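Tokens as discussed.
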């Protein structure tokens, strides 16, 4: 996924890609329920051609390819090539021959009209630089009568962000959420995403809020390190913490996370938006 509106946002930065690799197992475990939610919603069937937009390190493309059980074809694309190398490695480790990963910009997709039976996008739609243009591209490459399914973050007012970003806001005078961070929640209000899809020509567009487990299988310290490295939209906010406040902020965040830590997990209940539409 990418945010082309903010020059400070770099999804292909070495630190993020390195952290994604180092924390690959716990990150995958944390995102499993979210991946399962979008895979169930999109309703794939054997032999289908599926496009996964902004797939990052490979999900839900890999889970969809696994569900197709060797049939059909899954194409995972992302504008940042770094994470795609991890996706290729993960698919190879699973012996998946029906999935490929290609660098591509959702605003100008390198695919013919009516190429796909299904399109998915998990946690990427919020960062489209020109949503209307991107949705028209998705409409173009989807077959008539085929389904698009999108998963986005719900509102910022949920434990995952309140314990991290919210703690920074509470403990750093003058701290504000950067535009790239605020963009994560642009579709958090029900009806916003489905309205945008209808405007792009999709039919039967609908969206709803849903709750899924979003648990980090490790310590609060490990999670906080991971969050700071991979949550690129909030990097300007992290960088703006005054050096003399950094220890205080770290302590406050870890204290908030510790209250959600039990059974060797940091436990969150993620609020997401699930949207579907028909070409």
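Sequence:
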């Amino acid at each position: 996924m990418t945010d082309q509106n903010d020059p400070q946002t770099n999804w292909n930065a070495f630190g993020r890609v390195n952290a994604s690799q180092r924390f690959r197992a716990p990150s995958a475990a944390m995102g499993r329920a979210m991946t399962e939610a979008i895979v169930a919603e999109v309703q794939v069937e054997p032999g289908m051609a599926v496009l996964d937009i902004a797939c990052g390190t490979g999900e839900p493309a890999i889970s969809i390819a696994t569900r197709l059980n060797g049939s059909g074809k899954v194409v995972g694309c992302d504008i940042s090539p770094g994470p795609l190398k991890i996706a290729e490695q993960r698919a190879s480790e699973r012996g998946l021959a029906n999935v490929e990963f290609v660098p591509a910009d959702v605003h100008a997709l390198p695919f013919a009209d009516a190429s796909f039976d299904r399109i998915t996008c998990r946690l990427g739609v919020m960062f489209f630089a020109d949503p209307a243009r991107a949705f028209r591209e998705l409409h173009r490459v989807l077959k008539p009568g085929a389904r698009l399914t999108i998963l986005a973050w719900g509102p910022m007012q949920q434990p995952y962000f309140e314990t991290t970003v919210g703690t920074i806001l509470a403990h750093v005078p003058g701290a504000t959420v950067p535009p790239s961070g605020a963009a994560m929640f642009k579709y958090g209000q029900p009806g916003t995403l489905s309205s945008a899809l209808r405007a792009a020509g999709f039919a039967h567009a609908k969206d709803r809020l849903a709750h899924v487990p979003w648990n980090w299988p490790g310590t609060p310290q490990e999670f906080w390190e991971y969050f700071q490295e991979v949550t690129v939209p909030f990097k300007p906010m992290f960088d703006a913490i005054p050096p003399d406040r950094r220890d205080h902020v770290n302590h406050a965040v870890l204290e908030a996370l510790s209250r959600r830590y039990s059974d060797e997990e940091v436990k969150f209940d993620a609020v997401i938006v699930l949207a579907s539409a028909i070409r």
